[in-house]
Automatic annotation (TrEMBL):
Cofactor: [4Fe-4S] cluster
Origin: domain of life: Bacteria
HAMAP family xref list: UPF0313 (MF_01251)
Family from the record: Belongs to the UPF0313 family.
Cofactor note: Binds 1 [4Fe-4S] cluster. The cluster is coordinated with 3 cysteines and an exchangeable S-adenosyl-L-methionine.
Gene3D superfamilies tied to this protein: tm_1862 like domain (3.80.30.20)
Keywords per UniProt: 4Fe-4S, Iron, Iron-sulfur, Metal-binding, S-adenosyl-L-methionine
Stretches assigned to the Radical SAM core domain: 307-587
Keyword hit for Iron: yes
Residue positions binding [4Fe-4S] cluster: 321, 325, 328
Origin species: Emticicia soli
InterPro entries: Elp3/MiaA/NifB-like_rSAM, Methylthiotransferase_CS, rSAM, rSAM_horseshoe, rSAM_sf, UPF0313, UPF0313_C, UPF0313_N
Record's protein name: YgiQ family radical SAM protein
Length: 635
């Protein structure tokens, strides 16, 4: 075993006043406040933002998981920063982090040492910002991260069961960066360095701010402006709220987007257009910053940080997702266009991982939001520049989309050949529909088959994750997912490769209950179809309406935001529980309930299918405990 010397504390960004003093600083330029523990790794937003600020020549320090209930000493420990505070709830929306789909308080927090719960408040971005504004009223506050990003306009909050205004109005922050923050942050830092106060910055892409409605909008960038129905109108009219969402989603997916405004009381919310997706050089620059790739040493005695343990030997190769699934926040936050790292940057990270003191030769994931979208983009990007579709693969795969898996296969093979790597697995879920020729017609040279052979024989760690999500075509259309028949075709292709190589690596299919458009009989049919395929489902979840998703809008308004046509949704706790129970047809305690319920629905045929002895050997799924970690899918 190689024993490596302990790294000096100055390799991390400062987390304590002593560390600031050790660097010889008499003040801090920017203080970052986060709801997560500080892990200096490119998968953790606070580390990325901190390292960018550092790379621009600023002195930055972190306040991680401050106590918001005592005398607020944590917020005061560095004193007043020279330029501004940056605030984030962390890698997850704090309410998704805290509560289950049934609004039960979770007993753990994956972003806290020891997995302990209770180290961040509900609505953390707002709570932290209000505290800072009270302590330092003249210091600007910049908010960002997924909680701020997805709550930037009027949004439905499932936990309060009410519409809430922009988080800028609730928190009192001066500026909000939405989406992946590297590009707007660097622009902001350049302006701040020139002496421009942060609370006067209004002309940077991908930021939002509030101003008095009597003030004229800045016109120096030539942006066209689209106005949403006001917050007050949305409170009275659910259809207006639903219509707002369509505008926000369409503008978020454009290369040349319009500026969006919305009245909130006597103020106007202004959302500037997003940046075009990061190019290879820009995304490499973000991943190549001098991370230690380790949690801060301060946490050593408090136990491991579960989220870090999950990803410490993984590599994120790209960002964005063009799936546009109705329930998912990935494209809303990261964008639908794919930003891919260079092969050189990825291999550089492989070389860093193998130096990790705990590395035993196994990389846990070569992936991304969807593992197999690396380097995929439009063949003719001028067509993409005009496109407004929220998904590139629903209802059909765009003929302009290059879905070649060759670059990904090449990366897998190169990592496989690394002398220090025994195995490199794909732990992220894959978009199986991209690999089904009947659905994806863009496989002229057979590169999908080459990819599948490489994947199945070399990179499956016992099981492969895929996400059909449902079996009902009506529900799947609402989800923006393909027909379940394509999952069956993928399974046939997957099983054929397994049989050829004498492998036994079960598929792990993900499914959701209570999604808009799903009725109880649909769930019973889902259970019966998956049972017939030999699955015993445990890696499942109940639908949670998260801000800025199509499904959340349907849940609240009762209509689809693109058609304004009604869609039925299970909303009561009893309705949601009933749908979820069908997943567990194999549990003795549910059998009588299932028979009774289906007879009431006049679906005795489904009761017979579900409760009869399985015709096929049932393959196990992940243990029930894994369900607790499903929340990570909505980062």
């Amino acid at each position: 075993m190689i024993i490596r010397p302990e790294r000096p504390i100055t390799d991390w960004l400062p987390l304590t006043l002593k560390e600031v003093e050790k660097r010889g600083w008499d003040e801090v330029d920017v203080v970052l406040v986060s709801g997560d523990a500080y892990v200096d790794h490119p998968a953790f937003g606070t580390a990325v933002i901190g390292r960018i600020i550092e790379s621009e020549g600023f002195r930055t320090a972190i306040i991680a998981q401050p106590n918001w209930k005592d005398d607020l000493r944590d917020f005061k420990k560095y004193g007043r920063p020279k330029y501004f505070f940056g605030v984030t709830a962390g890698c997850m929306d704090s309410m998704v982090n805290h509560y289950t789909a049934n609004k039960r308080l979770r007993s753990n927090d994956s972003y806290t040492p020891g997995g302990e719960a209770g180290y961040r408040p509900d609505y953390a971005t707002t709570v932290y910002t209000k505290i800072l504004k009270e302590l330092y009223p003249d210091v600007p506050v910049l908010i960002g991260g997924i909680e701020a990003s997805l709550r930037r306009v009027t949004h439905y909050d499932y936990w309060k069961d009410q519409l809430m205004p922009s988080i800028l109005a609730d928190s009192g922050a001066d500026l909000l960066v939405y989406g992946m923050g590297e590009q707007p942050l660097r622009e902001i830092l350049k302006l701040v360095k020139k002496g421009v106060p942060l609370n006067t910055i209004k002309n940077v892409n991908q930021v939002a701010y509030m101003q008095d409605s009597s003030e004229a909008l800045p016109d120096d960038r030539g942006w066209n402006t689209v106005e949403l129905a006001s917050h007050e109108v949305c409170l009275k009219d659910k259809l207006k709220y639903a219509s707002n969402f369509k505008i926000v989603e369409v503008e978020s997916n454009k290369w040349q987007a319009n500026r969006i405004i919305q009245k909130i009381g006597s103020d106007t919310l202004v959302i500037n257009p997003p940046f075009k997706i990061m190019d290879e050089k820009e995304i490499d620059q973000s991943f190549d910053l001098p991370y230690t790739r380790l949690p801060h040493p301060k946490y050593k005695k408090r136990g491991p940080i579960p989220a870090y343990e999950m990803i410490k030997f993984s590599i994120n190769m790209h960002r964005g997702c063009f799936g546009g699934c109705s329930f998912c926040t990935i494209s809303a936050h990261q964008g639908k266009f794919i930003a891919s790292r260079s092969e050189e940057s990825i291999m550089k990270e492989v070389n860093e991982i193998v130096q990790h003191p705990e590395f035993k030769g196994y990389i846990s994931d070569l992936g991304g939001p969807s593992a197999n979208m690396y380097r995929m983009k439009g063949k003719d990007e001028s067509i993409c520049a005009r496109c407004q579709a929220p998904s590139c693969i629903h209802p059909v795969i765009c003929s302009n989309l290059d879905t070649s898996h060759k670059p990904l296969t090449k990366i897998y093979q190169k990592v496989d050949a690394h002398p220090e790597v025994k195995k490199a697995f794909v732990g992220s879920g894959i978009r199986y529909d991209l690999l089904v020729d009947d659905f994806n017609k863009n496989n002229q040279d057979g590169n999908h088959d080459e990819y599948m052979e490489q994947l199945v024989t070399r990179h499956v760690s016992g099981r492969l994750k895929v996400a059909p999500e449902h079996t009902s075509d009506d529900t799947l259309r609402v989800m923006r997912k393909p027909s379940f028949k394509y999952f069956k075709k993928f399974k046939q292709k997957y099983d054929k490769i397994q049989d050829k190589h004498e492998l036994k690596q079960p598929l792990i299919p993900y499914f959701i209950s209570s999604h808009p458009g799903c009725e109880e009989a649909d769930m019973a049919n889902l259970a019966a179809e998956t049972k017939d395929l030999g699955f015993q489902l445990e890696q499942v979840q109940d639908f949670t309406p998260t801000p800025m998703t199509v499904a959340e809008v349907i849940y609240y308004s009762g209509v689809h935001p693109y058609t304004l046509q009604p869609i039925k949704t299970a909303k009561t706790r009893e309705e949601k529980l009933a749908q979820n129970r069908f997943f567990f047809w194999y549990k003795p305690e549910f059998k009588n309930w299932i028979r009774s319920r289906l007879h009431k629905l006049n679906r005795a045929d489904l009761a017979d299918r579900l409760l009869a002895s399985p015709k096929k050997k049932i393959q196990g799924n992940e243990p029930v405990g894994a369900v607790k970690n499903k929340k990570k899918r909505f980062r």
